[in-house]
Each structure stands twice: as C-alpha cells, then as structure tokens.
Amino acid sequence: MPAAFSLNMNAYNRFFNRLAESLPSDLVSRVRRKSDSVFQQPGHGDFDRWLEAVHNMPDIKPESMDFSSDAVTASGKISQEDKENICSSLKQLHPWRKGPFDIFGVHIDAEWKSSLKWARIKDKISSLTGRKVLDVGSGNGYYGYRMLAGGAEFVLGLDPTLLFAAQFLALNKYFDSSRNFVLPLGIDDFPMDSEAFNTVFSMGVLYHRRDALKHLNSLAGNLCPGGEIVLETLIIDSQEDAVFAPQGRYAKMRNVWNLASPSVIMRWLENAGLKNVSMIDKTPTTSQEQRKTDWMRFESLNDFLNPQDKSKTIEGHQAPIRAAFIGSK
Prior knowledge:
Elements: H1 9-22, H2 25-40, H3 47-56, E1 64-66, E2 72-75, H4 80-91, E3 98-99, E4 101-103, E5 106-108, E6 112-113, H5 114-121, E7 132-136, H6 142-149, E8 154-158, H7 162-175, E9 180-183, E10 197-203, H8 212-221, E11 223-234, E12 243-244, E13 259-260, H9 262-271, E14 275-284, H10 301-304, E15 305-306, E16 309-313, E17 321-328
Parallel strand pairs: 2-4, 3-6, 7-8, 7-10, 8-9, 10-11
Antiparallel strand pairs: 1-2, 4-5, 11-17, 12-13, 14-17, 15-16
Keywords: Methyltransferase, Transferase, tRNA processing
Enzyme class: transferase
GO molecular function, one term: methyltransferase activity
C-alpha cells in the first residue's frame, strides 16, 4: 500500500471484517483482492499526492457527527490553524462533485446538492433498516453516510474514480466509519450473481454504460431474493417507448451512450427479473441542484445548456431530466 494510505488501513480492515460477517467469503476475498491491487498500483499519477493531502490533515476526533442532515457533518472545537489545514487539504482534492459536507466548520459546497436527490427518494424506497447495501457509482460516499442514517447495516460503495476514493478517505479520517466504505472498483469487478445485498443503488451510472441491459442484469444479480433495486438515471421525457443514442456529446459529456423513456427503462428492469417496478420521481435538473462552486470550479450545468433556451442542451437535445425507479426481486 502507498505509505500515506497506512493511516486509513484501520477503518479499511474493520470494514472488510464486517463484510466477512455478512457476505459470502469468496465474494469478500475477491473484492478485497481487487481493492488491494488498485490501492497498491493505482495507475494514476496524482493518487499519491491526494493521499499525502489526506495524511497531512490534523488527527482530531470530532465531538459529534451527523449523517441525517443535508450536510454530512463532523463537528467539534478546533484551532483556526487546524481548520485552515483541513480546508487547504480538502481543496487539494478538487473537484468535489457530491456533497455537501461540513468538516469542523469547513463547508464543502460540492457541485451537486446531493441532499436534494436524497430527499426526493428516501421516503419512497423500502426502509434501509438492517439492510446490506451496494451503492454502484457511489462517488465520495455522501449517499452512503445518508444511508447509514437511514438504518443500513453497512454500505459498500463502488467507484473506479480514484479521486472520489481519496475524497472518501479524507472524510472518513474524521467519520471513522467501518460501516460505509468507498472501494476503487466498478460493478464489473463483481460477480453477476452474488445475490448478497438487500438493496442495490445505481444513481447516475446507467447512461454511461455501453450495454445498459448488462448493467441492469449485474445489479439484479447482486440482489438477494426480496431485495430492491434503486435506479436513478437521465431519461427522455416521453410517454412513448423511445431510446436516444447521442451522436457525439450530450450536455458536453462524451460518454453518454443511451437515454430511454420511463416505459423503456421499466421494461428493461422487468427483463432483468424485477417485479413491482415503478417510477418514484422525475425531476428536471436545475442550477439550484447542479452548479459551479469554489469546490468545483470547472464547467457545470449552465455551461451545458443553450444560453438562449435552457430547455435544450448546448447541442440542441432535451435538457437533463432525471428519474428514479424501484423494483424488487
């Protein structure tokens, strides 16, 4: 492991010990082996620098933590010097896509107000109490902490973007959770049929997958009988069956392979073996939810839309509308 990662090994080991108590041993061994391999040879030139930023953050224990508020919070009395050190280190992990967080008074105002999405769906999904949760495309772990507040037994977050893993390690330096952990892996690093999780989340991933049906089958295959999938994705806002494969970019994104109407997505979920499929939310994305901030200084939603007609992307397509679906196995 990189030297700077050693300080994070305690929570990492405790998390895998927890997994070993709840999941099949062959699955835990496979995931641990793959995760260790990535951390040992990350293949990203900035990863050691990011870990060094985490390493340089002061070792302080929070007096209290709050995973149920919009801003996931660690609080306590600290010196101004320590606060500035924390802020400087966290800003070295730019850009912050998901949040908000409040770390000893340092407010991480991320690009996405992820609290808004969580508020839209949290009361429309099955209770997470006592559930083993897989969060595919977890980002830096924001939703995982919110899921713990909802009663989840543990949350296994998967995201192959190493920056998000580094952000999680920075946050978890203070949250010190052995029940929520972001591993630098994707769903392709999992077997397709573990049937090990009570709830499987996939939010903001489907349209980035070349083979949408394979992705849904992977989600369903990791769901235990009676479990629930929560799928959130960009859609085509149409009452008809429709699938749109952008030629070139969509909202300046290069890797959007297909958008589908709600009826098509629900049929895909049913074809993956799910029942009781329904759409629980449909919301246009606005600049109140996704925008440029001091913690994400690159282009954001307003730069992706037609300046003369905000109902269209810069390429002339329908502006982003997101929907959430549930289905049980």
